[in-house]
Amino acid sequence: MKFIKKSQSKKLVGGKSTIIREYMLGDNDINGAIAEINGRYPDKDRVVNQTSKELVYVLSGKGKLVVEDKETKFSSGDMLIINQGEKYYWQGAFTILMANTPTWTPEQHKNVK
Known about the structure:
Layout: E1 10-13, E2 18-23, E3 31-41, E4 46-49, E5 53-67, E6 70-75, E7 79-82, E8 87-101, E9 109-112
Antiparallel strand pairs: 1-2, 2-3, 3-8, 4-8, 4-9, 5-6, 5-7, 5-8
């Protein structure tokens, strides 16, 4: 078993409208984070996870996820998957739980046009 307290998580700013709390469990296979987005993430263009697949559960609020050119609207209680290599952005006012496999790292998360 692995356990991490909120006080041990790392708070990151992901642009003008995004705050992320990373829960690095010291596991190479999976990690998790909570993101609060109030606007757009990333602020412009799109992002891509080059190695991680991301399972997302919407804790509260509503918004949209645009993957490649497909827009998906979501709200509290919905679940989404972003596959490795898909270019995307988020927009709205919501809080999400993200689980990444393999473990998310900043080096594999890139901004793209």
